Amino acid sequence: MTNEFATPYRTRSQIPPEPGKPYFVEKGQGDRAHLFGDLFTIYAGGEQTENTFNFFTCEGPKGDIIPAHSHPDTYEVFYVTDGAVRLFVEETGGEQHEKLLTSGDFGFVPKNCPHAYRIERHHSRIVGVAAGPGGTFERFFENLGAPTDDPGLPVAPVVPEPHAFGSVGQRYDVRFLPDHQWRTPSAIEERS
């Protein structure tokens, strides 16, 4: 059985609200949130790691590209454990890359680099880790999306109000880039 804690973010959580306390999260547990068509599950965040890193998963169906964004102070890791995810990244000098990541593949996004991803196969899962001097952004998902106790994908997409992208993103080191254009082959193909 997993312990439950009250946190500043949730009345019930499997994650202790303070650092320095060992804990375990059983399969199917964690702090979950629905955002767009995806399920995000938080296992460790700023409160537990003294704002040094977070650890989360993203599960979702095949879908559209998520909005381009950057993290001015945070480095992000994408490790695909199931399915396939196409990662789009732009270097600070403007060169763009895209890579199809499948089970066992890894992608690294430096801070300040615009990036986005698109889940290419149903039942895909990304393990994410983010770290940097700006802290961690794991609570972004439930503040932009919707906290849930449901271990499954949302029945209907959870689409935030347009104003939330700016206000919530700013609090969690996420800068959306609404006018960003991907010039990589699959992005061009998708627009045609």
Automatic annotation (TrEMBL):
Residues 61-119 form the Cupin type-2 domain. InterPro entries: Cupin_2 (IPR013096), QDO-like (IPR053146), RmlC-like_jellyroll (IPR014710), RmlC_Cupin_sf (IPR011051). CDD domains: cupin_QDO_N_C. Residues 1-14 have a biased composition (Polar residues). Pfam families: Cupin_2. Residues 1-20 are annotated as: Disordered. This is Quercetin 2,3-dioxygenase. It comes from Saccharopolyspora mangrovi. The lineage of its organism: Bacteria, Bacillati, Actinomycetota, Actinomycetes, Pseudonocardiales.
